[in-house]
Amino acid sequence: MIEGPFSQLETITSKELKTMPLILHECFDLQERLAHCTQVDLKNLKIQATYNVINGSDIELIRNNLGYLLATDNHLTQTLDDLNI
């Protein structure tokens, strides 16, 4: 399992979210909904990579340590239990 500086936190606040390199689904509507739910403007997020099911897997972005995946469960290509990283 990959350990990162945020892995020990029980919750992540919007302040911490703004400092995290993020991997988001390419769907802009989903990005806006996530920003609304977290009360963070999209332009204040450090989006390192985006993905969609056509051009690649979110799992490879995670495995290559490009950032933290922020997604809803219906936008994951695999379950987190299947990652085995």
What brief labels describe this structure?
single chain, 85 residues, alpha/beta, three-stranded parallel β-sheet, 3 helices, 3 strands, globular
* Tally of helical segments: 3
- The end-to-end span amounts to 5 Å
Say what oligomer this is: single chain
- Count of domains: 1
The percentage of residues in β strands lies in 15-25%
Structural class assignment: alpha/beta
Rounded mean pLDDT score: 77
Q: Would you report the number of β strands? A: 3
Percent of residues in helices comes to 10-25%
Low-confidence stretches: none
**Main pleated sheet:** 3 strands, parallel
What spatial order of strands do you see in the largest sheet?
A: 2-1-3
Description:
The structure is a single chain. The protein is of the alpha/beta class and 85 residues long. The protein has one domain (14-73). Helices cover 25% and strands 16% of the residues. The chain contains 3 helices and 3 strands. It has helices at residues 14-17, 28-38, 58-63, and strands at 21-25, 46-51, 68-70. A 3-stranded parallel sheet has the order 2-1-3. Strand 1 (21-25), helix 2 and strand 2 form a beta-alpha-beta unit. The radius of gyration is 12 Å and the shape is globular. The N and C termini lie close together (5 Å).
